[in-house]
Amino acid sequence: MSNHDDNSTVSVWGVIPVYNNAATILSVAERILKQQIDGVLVIDDGSNDCNVAETLSGIAGITVLAHEHNMGKGKAIQTALKYLNERNVTYMITIDGDGQHYPEDIEHFLPVLAEDDHSIIIGVRDFSARHIPGSSNVGRKFSNFWIMVETGCKVADAQSGFRAYPVKYISQLHFISSYYNFEIEVLTKAAWAGITLKSVPVRVWYPENPEDRVSSFRPFLDNFRITLINIHLVGLRILPIPHKQLVRTADDAKSVKDFIRHPLLALRELLVENATPCGLAAAAGVGAFFSILPVPGFHTAAIIYAAVRLHLNKIMAVNIQHFFMPPLIPLLCIETGYFIRHGQWLTEISFDTVCKQLGSRIIEWWIGAAVLVIPLSLLTALAVYVAAVLIRRCKRA
To answer: What is the pLDDT of residues 272-284, one digit of tens each?
Structure first.
């Protein structure tokens, strides 16, 4: 293999997480062996359709590890990481065992991973191929968007399982996901740690008849898990807690210097920052959320903080608060809180009800805000999304 420097040789293994892929696992493993790699590690994640070790027995260069029961794709990848880290392997290239990917495309990874030992290389699937499920395209866009929010990195295919992981670095991170949600968590936490996310093009194959494809992805349960991990990661991102840095970068210092030297250019970048319909909608939703909360005098600061942490369009997030300025929204919240407490609307506006009973009004403001903040934020985000889509269509026309 190629060298990063005079003293460091790149060691690369192929890794196949397997769960009930009896029809394809032998072909996939043998094709990976033909590539310029040092070995193949197969993680049998509790398969019950065949004995994976027996199926691959006698083939030199293939190692099989087995989970006693199905623990999830993420846990299988973590088992591979532990095994290969103990053997000082530089990179592992994961590839699904269902035949979706072409092992021959590993050749696209090798020149890129030879550049350094601390990047994740993602195989971006060619979705112009035949028989691509519509749900796969939608899911990819959804995951790409949330990776952008959580890390600020633009990723072309956050759901691709065809990846190269830097073993030493990823092994130092802590993960809570065990299933397909791991593939979102690992990208996010790796980017936080300073690991670069790179991409290479790969082919993809789907059978003409969707029923012929063997997949362990369960749409409702796994999408629910992915949603939960995104909520968890967004929460971690908002908190002012420093993340573990494995690779030092100078991007933040460079950004500050660029802003000082070229303020007009920096302003222009702010205007177009994450300016997709989804990005603008998320910025509007976050801006609305903090605008509705009863924190007078701190709305703008809270909005800017959240927008910076979540890599959202700061111009949109800050300006959307003008739609929620007093007195309408505070009054609506107080009325809602009053109704919840007393079962009727507050109809008397006087010195007594406003000043002497100020403590009660503040409590009702918080109650009403707690009830209204989520639906009003979602409605705001939806309105901005629809408007952004319509404006884009008008410009194209």
So the answer is: 566 788 889 999 9
| pLDDT reported for residue 140 | 86
Question: What are the chain's domains?
Answer: 3-238 (3.90.550.10), 251-396 (no CATH)
> Does the pLDDT at position 38 exceed 70?
yes
Query: Which residue do the tokens 């065809």 mark?
Result: 162
What mean pLDDT comes out for the span 117-145? 84
Q: What is the dihedral of CA 33, 34, 35, 36, to 10 degrees?
A: 90
Q: Residue 261 forms beta bridges with which residues?
A: none
For residue 140, give both structure tokens.
Answer: 């990819």
Burial class for 173, CB neighbours closer than 10 Å (0-12, 13-18, 19+): middle
**Is cis: bond before 207, omega within 30 of 0?**
no
Q: CA-CA distances (angstroms) from residue 258 to 61, 239, 255, 261, 272?
A: 50, 26, 5, 5, 16
* Residue 207: Cβ-neighbour burial (10 angstroms; 0-12, 13-18, 19+): middle
Q: Is the dihedral of CA 183, 187, 188, 193 positive or negative?
A: positive
